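ok so i was messing around last nite and threw this chain in just to see what happens. nothing serious, just curious
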Amino acid sequence: EWFKAKLDNPQVAMYMAFLEVEKIGVIRFDDEKDTVKVSVMMNPRYVNQGLGSKVIKYGSIKFINEVDNKKSLTAKIKRENVASKKAFQRAGFVEDSSSYVFEINN
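result:
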């Protein structure tokens, strides 16, 4: 139900990432009031292989190129989620010193 609602929502863009024929992850962009929130979910078989940062980087580039968006892309990451923070940083996002929000400006 939640997934179908996201797919039907015009404020949401979602892309699947593949390695050959295997689905390795999904990246989602939720257009909110002042920003576009980025979320990523990786296939557990492909975690800790450096692929998350590629899914984030190329998914973000695809979103920016396809959507007329002037807002920053942001990802809120829990303090203890070191792997996600590193993946977003490797993808070009910059940490905001006041919180764990990463931004990439288009």
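not much to say yet. The mean pLDDT is 86.
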